[in-house]
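Researcher: I'm preparing a figure for a lab meeting and need a structural model of a single chain. I don't have an experimental structure, so a prediction will have to do for now. The sequence is pasted below. Please return the structure as tokens so I can convert it later.
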Amino acid sequence: MTTIETSRPAAARQYAGLSLRSWRMVGIAALLAAACVLPFSLSSYHLFQATQVLVYAMVLLGLNVLTGFNGQISLGHGAFYAIGAYTAAILLDKTGVPYWATIPVAGLVCLVAGFLFGRPALRLEGHYLALATFALAVATPQILKYKHLEPWTGGVQGIIISKPDAPAGLPLDGDQWLYFFCLIWTVPLFVVGWNLLRGRTGRAMVAIRDHPMAAATMGIDTALYKSLTFGVSAMYTGIAGALGALVAQFVSPDSFGFFLSISFLVGIVVGGIASISGAVFGAIFIEFVPNIADQISKAAPWAIYGIFLIAFMYLMPMGVAGVVRFAAARFARLASERRAG
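Model: Understood. Here is the structure written out token by token.
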């Protein structure tokens, strides 16, 4: 009798873990199914917003890799978003390459740019690094307006991009195809991010974030890992920027002001720091909450936005993903106790 009673909590914990994993897989499958059905039930404008959510989710995942998992605070990811967008726009405008080929090129360009920026930034920590990246975000729009770059960037006028058509044989209009094209990039990038962060590389990133001296003592090359993390984060953002340029069909320097970088940081905090799923929740916040605030008050929309932000931080200090994770774990525990009892 004692043996049965002693083993019951362990069995309950094991069942809770299996149940939680099962519910997570069911939730992911349901989310993907809903994502595939979504474009056939939305208007063009709301489909545009849904596509923007996918684009922003990629940015926030890349920023969370850098800030949430590696501890490097960046206020300049709007600059990498701009680099990715302009890489795609210039290639389409000047070379005529297929639109799908511009996406990996933009990611590669931003990977190199992020790595090169991350090397000298290794000497900076905390708010010093944040200020350095903030300077990058402030300077980028002005650089794009520089007169000697106007033949390429279009200066203040920007570059207009034609909306790509759906491949022949697919019964989709342009907006629906853009949505699915972004989804085709979003899902693999999230899978790669999940595997990266759950593996040895992810553990090294977290170790550097939590105990940099101990990580170096254990043989982790902190300089290399921090630079590569910056590069990978910029690559995610650059891919999103190229996709965002296709979705908006236009790029201009004023579209990439420093407030864009602040919005990305807000997104990872609201969604959940060091959370993969938090990137999706944060993307929904930064896409829809400003519009909701504008509908509530035309006179002071940013005041309403600030109230929403304060409410989220007060009610969900661990982010939306933290609340969802806590609720799912509690539900699985209650279910296991019922089964075990």
